[in-house]
Amino acid sequence: MLLNFIPQNVHFLFTTNQEFPIPLTKFAMANNVYTIQEEELKFSFDELKNYISTKKINLSEDNLLELYQLTDGIPTFINILTTYIETIDLKKYDELIDSAKKIDEYINLLTEVLSEDLREYLKVFSLMNEIEPKICKAYFNLKSDEKIHESFEKLYDLNMIEKKDPHYYYMNEIFRRTTSKGIGEREKIHIYQTLFNIYQKEQDYYGQFHCLLNMKDLEKVYDFFLNHSELLIKDFSIIKKWLDLIPTSFFSNNIELYYYRGVIEEKYSMFDEALSDYRLVKDNIHKISNKSILENIDTQIIGIYWHQEKYEKVIEMGNELLKSIPNENYQSLTSLYNLLGTSYSYLSKLDEGKLYLNKAMELCERFNFTEMKPWLLNNLAYNIFLIEGNLESAENFFIKSLKSFEDSKDLYGKALLNANLTDFYIETQKYEKAKEHLEAFESIYLETKNIAYLPVLKILQAKLEVEKKELKSAQKSLMEAENYYSRSKFLQANYYFVQSLYLLKKDELKESFSTVEKAIKIGKTIFNEYQILNFELQKVRLLIHLKQFEKALSYIGKIIQIATEGKAKSILTQALLLKLFLSKSFNLSSYNEDLKTFNELLSDNNYQFILQKYPEITNSIEDLIEINLEAKTPSLDTSLKLRFEASPEISYLESKKALYPKIYLFGEFRLVCGDKVLTMKKVRNQKALELFKFLTLNYDQWIIQDVIIENFWPNLPFEKSRQSLYVALHDIRKRFQEFSLVEEYILQKNKNYKFNVNKVYYLDYEDFILHFEEGNKLFKNKQYLKAKEHYLKAKKLYSYGLLPSNIYDDWAIPKIEDAEKSYLSILAILYSLEKEKDIVMAENYLDEYLRIEPFADEMNIEYINLLLKKGERKKALDYYKYINELYKKELGTAFNSKEINYFVKEFQIY
């Protein structure tokens, strides 16, 4: 129901009905105006996701980003589209907008009452990428600024266009699509050509490119792009859309496009794909005349190895390439110096890193190479100044770099710098600034729909929320990052680090400790020896909370040594704060010297934020810290306190909720991760599950493809069986992702497959074997009590046997039989250890042994003798009768033993 529909003053008020529940968009009264702010009326992206989660709709992150862009967060459009998705059997998400006829009717209803001039404006606006008043003034040949301003304000008041900033407007995507549908193709071409001519006069290359794209002359678009690629590629989301639409045949005839596609793929973290495209360009270099590509292709290839964190290879290839680059090719030299400088830094060679980065900066300054300068500013800040603890220079360089990227409209650079500044301000306790840059980063994520930005966004968001004690929000952010953080080791390490911070604030100390150990293990493979110290400090902090003072002292000593050698002042100050607390507990002789150094570092470098970063430590020794009188004394959080939870052995602590996959093959199959449990009943593709069990059962060896096919698809033609294998592997990875069992748990190499034992996991079958083997070793060395402990642990694991649901499957039988043989050996040894000490327990072990293997002569004799020893002669005779009949029936021979025969004759059984 539409109320108060007046052309001069349009306001919408909708009631709810079952078909389309449309909420209030804007409300006002004639004289008594109540204004709702525009941003209050729109959903944020997170609000959209929360809203969609209440619907019977399953949309991927990419679909959600598309939906958000289409609707601009306006509830009216969101409700129409979501209701449409719910009520219509939509085969393809891409068909959504074109199929939603009722949206067209709604928008046409709004535009019908407009004047002819305003409808004409809307028509042209719907074909523009950015609506700029001066371009529109030129298009409509208007001499008066007032006239164009008046028209814009009318349409803005009617919510038909939106302000991007004081100089630009835009039309909501749904409005734009619906309006542009009513324009004929010939008229569209005419409008685009007119706009192109205007953009040409204004030297607006983005505008020209947009027009050429929509005039659909591929050759013209291609030529224009090549002439202005350096500028255009900065708006990488638009270029990606264009490249995705180009036919493969056109790529084959224009090899340069593979190079630019590689550049775009880099920005989307598609490094394998980018490397493939760059290599193709390199192989066809004789077909390319573009000087820039010829000069830069080798550097781009090296850059991929840098992204893949293969820094030794970058240095090896980079130093070799340096020999062939002439001095006048300053662009390639600058890029290569940058790669070498950052690689040396990541390998803890800071002097070499600084040398090459400064060489690169010198070239930038000498040749005014503005394209590369912001990257160098960022890398000097991140790789040198942050490590040195020169925070003022780091902040200054970060801000200068961001400003340069903003001026050049480089979205990729803007995203990186906003992320880095977010983290910088979180670390230095400036949360409002951190929030400002995090929101800017999120805006770029929504604009570009670059899914690679999602884990970065959520990890940073969680980190900020943890520091602000918004723990419920932090938990949600970590959960949203969970399915994406495995994209790189950098993300994995930071994810676990932030999770450890979260668990510390939740007072789950043991879980926090095990999590930061994971972060350190991964981080050591990518961070230099100084960057990893941030993670090591968290480990020491937790050791203090767990009252493991001696271990904490050992670790803090190493941190102080490395930080001192590397002149890492901020790290050294934090380490000294933790050591001062430990010194107080142990009354160490170095205390006074450490205190003096700490206070000098604190005051000389404006490091007061460090006191806030460790409030529970600071509160414990606050009276010993001389705070710089010129600096404001920081307020300290009192919610986090040292409770000193006692714990005997940190390294073997078990989390209450597993933060890694736990796989159980004994008894009913189960996969457990956190609160999630997967059982056989929950899996539809049983072949995929059986294959997964097979790979985990053979965790210590590679399995060739032919063996897998022979076991699981023996009756299918080879191609079909191979395809079935690929489908099963895909299903395993897809199905187990929600349990944190991501792709890396199944390794693939030269048509061989293996369970990845290098990841963090628990497998009860492996545990069983380890306890059994350790028990045997100890038993052989006559350490019977220790051996018994391991045998009992193995016995407990065995439960109802290995894979009881697969006892007739050829692929499982050998392992099941081996496990049963080991279990019988355990029972026999446990019986031998108990028969002279605890006759009841010994009988239980024999009972269980004989239930599994009733035809074991020696154990049957032992059982009868045990009963006789207990004085249960009648029971012994009954058992003899039973076992003798069983032998005759199943084996065709009587149960025979000299000792038992004597017993039988004595009592004249027969």
Topology:
Blueprint: H1 38-41, H2 45-53, H3 61-71, H4 75-87, H5 96-99, H6 101-111, H7 116-125, H8 133-139, H9 145-157, E1 162-165, E2 168-170, H10 173-181, H11 185-202, H12 205-215, H13 218-227, H14 229-232, H15 236-245, H16 248-253, H17 256-267, H18 271-283, H19 291-307, H20 311-322, H21 330-346, H22 350-367, H23 373-388, H24 391-407, H25 411-427, H26 431-448, H27 453-467, H28 471-481, H29 489-505, H30 509-523, H31 533-545, H32 549-565, H33 569-586, H34 591-604, H35 609-613, H36 615-620, E3 662-664, E4 670-673, E5 676-679, H37 686-697, E6 703-704, H38 705-712, H39 718-737, E7 746-749, E8 752-755, E9 762-763, H40 764-780, H41 784-798, H42 813-834, H43 839-852, H44 857-869, H45 873-891, H46 898-907
Parallel strand pairs: 3-9
Antiparallel strand pairs: 1-2, 3-4, 4-5, 6-8, 7-8
Helix pairs in contact: 3-4, 6-10, 8-9, 11-12, 15-17, 17-18, 17-19, 18-19, 19-20, 19-21, 20-21, 21-22, 21-23, 22-23, 23-24, 24-25, 25-26, 25-27, 26-27, 27-28, 27-29, 28-29, 29-30, 30-31, 31-32, 31-33, 32-33, 33-34, 37-39, 38-39, 40-41, 41-42, 42-43, 43-44, 44-45
